[in-house]
Specification:
By secondary structure, this protein is α+β, with helices and mostly antiparallel strands. It is built from three helices and seven strands. A seven-stranded antiparallel sheet has the order 4-3-2-1-7-6-5. The longest helix is centred in the last third of the chain and has 22 residues. It is globular, with a radius of gyration of 21 Å.
Length: 180
C-alpha cells in the first residue's frame, strides 16, 4: 500500500495521559500505524482512519489537552473516532500538525481499490534511485511498500476459528471433575 506520510509524533496514552514519542506511518488505505521506533519492527497500535475517524482537530480546537513539556498548543492534533474516543498527538511544529491533518483527511476521503494485476500484464518497476539521486524541484515521491501488519479476511477468519477452538478446549478441560 502506498505510504502517504511518516514521521515522529508525540502520542498521549489513554489511561495515564502520559506523552510518548512514536514513529507514525499513514498509508493510503487509511491505516495510521504507530511503532516504537522508525525501524517499524514493534507496532504499538493502529487506527483505521477510513472507518473509524469522525473528525481531525488541530491547535486551539484541542480543548482540555495540555501539550508535552516544551511544546506549543498549536502543535496538537486530535483524531476523534466514531466510537467517541480520541487519540491525541503532538507534532514537532505547527506546520507539521497542519500537514498531518491534511494527510489524514486525504487518506480518509481517498477511495482505494485493491485488485490484483491481470495475468500476463506485469509492469516493471524501476529500482529505488538511492540517496544520492536528485529530483526536480517540486517533485513529490511516493514510496510504495506492503503494509506488514495487513490482515486479509481469510487470515482473520482462521485466527478467530483457532481462538474459539482453543477456548472451547481449555474451557472443557478446566471443568473436568478431577480438579477436586
Amino acid at each position: 500500500m502506498a505510504l502517504v506520510k511518516s514521521g515522529w509524533l508525540w502520542r498521549q496514552s489513554s489511561i495515564l495521559r502520559r506523552w510518548k514519542r512514536n514513529w507514525f506511518v499513514l498509508y493510503l488505505d487509511g491505516s495510521l500505524v504507530y511503532y516504537h521506533d522508525e525501524t517499524q519492527r514493534d507496532m504499538d497500535g493502529r487506527i483505521h482512519i477510513k472507518y473509524s475517524c469522525r473528525d481531525v482537530r488541530i491547535g486551539r480546537e484541542c480543548k482540555d489537552v495540555q501539550p508535552p513539556e516544551g511544546r506549543s498548543r498549536d502543535c496538537l492534533l486530535t483524531v476523534v473516532l466514531r466510537d467517541g474516543s480520541k487519540t491525541t498527538l503532538c507534532a514537532e511544529s505547527e506546520d507539521d500538525a497542519v500537514a498531518w491533518k491534511m494527510a489524514v483527511l486525504e487518506a480518509k476521503s481517498t477511495p482505494v481499490r485493491l485488485r490484483p494485476p491481470k495475468q500476463g500484464h506485469h509492469r516493471r518497476v524501476p529500482p529505488h534511485p538511492g540517496p544520492l539521486s536528485l529530483a526536480a524541484p517540486g517533485v513529490t515521491h511516493v514510496v510504495v511498500r506492503e503494509d506488514p501488519y495487513r490482515v486479509s479476511g481469510d487470515q482473520m477468519a482462521l485466527g478467530l476459528l483457532a481462538g474459539a477452538a482453543t477456548g472451547a478446549a481449555l474451557g472443557s478441560f478446566m471443568w473436568m471433575p478431577c480438579w477436586f
